[in-house]
Amino acid sequence: MHFPQRGRPADDVVADLQAMTADDKDFRRGRTFGLVYHAGEDLERIVATAHEQFLWHNALNPDAFPSLRRMQSEVVAMTADLLGAEVVAAEGGEVAGFMTSGGTESILMAVKAAKVRARRERDVEHPNVVLAASAHAAFDKACGYFGLESRRVPVRSDWRADIDAMAGAIDADTALIVGSAPQYPQGVIDPIPELAALAAERDINCHVDACMGGFVLPFLERLGRDIPPWNFAVPGVTSISADIHKYGYTPKGASVILHRSKELRRDQTFVFDGWLGGFYGSSGVLGTKPGGPIAAAWTAFQYLGIDGYCERVAKAVEARERLVAGVRGIAELAVVGEPEVTLAAITAADGSGFDVFALGTELFDRGWMLDRQGPPDSLHCSCAPVHADMIDEFLSELADAVRKVAGTRADDRSTNYAAME
Fold first, then answer.
1. Which residues does residue 58 pair with via DSSP β-bridges, in sequence order?
2. Distance (Å, rounded) from C-alpha 81 to C-alpha 268?
3. pLDDT over 70 percentage in the chain
């Protein structure tokens, strides 16, 4: 396609944009289990207004837009308030952090900060990261970008990190130990206190990837759910990532990375004055940082508050619980492990020989979107509040799709997959 010579009427351009969405999955009706985390039209309207108001603002230089400095600072502070900052404050410390463009950037910055600390304090030349096989792929992306060795360790039979195996992988060059709360594939929480203790014994970084749980677990605790320790209340946890654009219910891309101290936060930043453009400083991968996601995040926090988030988290967890119960009622299917939060993975029942990826294709053709992952072959579900009203519809179609797929020939089935989260 060639770049247009002349501009087109606005109405024609908008009509084309609308036409392009014809085959998009309807996330507002809960037809996607992931990718978009929708929590109501009222919230969508107000965060869209905030995003549009700051559409052209740039947080690269906060002196130009003090509004963005204030909002970003308050978003980080409010997130820290949720994730155990008061415990650190009682110890005389101060949790500090930045907003990023998403979970991947937050993870990249956690790995980069760990590398800088290992070099700064111990002169480590060839650092490594020890993490469970269930930890997000972005950790290996970070290792590839920043020159660290990734040491992935098999998980236990319950899909959680294996403490003994991870301890055996640590050596004098280990810069970072990783835990997840929860991990993405099966939705279970790693034993964070034990992982953090491994790090504390060696005075190295321990990062908790709470990109999926950072804006779920604090509210589940307030709803009276028994949640294992996972945040800054755990000694030895040095950083946490939490995605606002997932269960914080804001547009992409907005995440927060928090460090246990300002000193540790400094290991994340980049500064440079060796060019003709003057001093340059950056908190993350991005230089220019769009104002829209910052304003949308601040607005969502203010609009919903603790009570609003508790209400929406309760709906999302209820949806996941009903989904799990329904799947377990279908003979050909099973749920991987015992998911604890809002995530679940649907797989074939032992010995059934059922093709779960063919099921995914059938559901896709019916207008549903479930990510494919493995091993084991499974369909991933991230439940949001919108799903609470349509789980019965989904389970009915799921059962019908299972019956149809079970009757197809094996060589007609789809067995490819690609992780999308």
1. 290
2. 21
3. 97
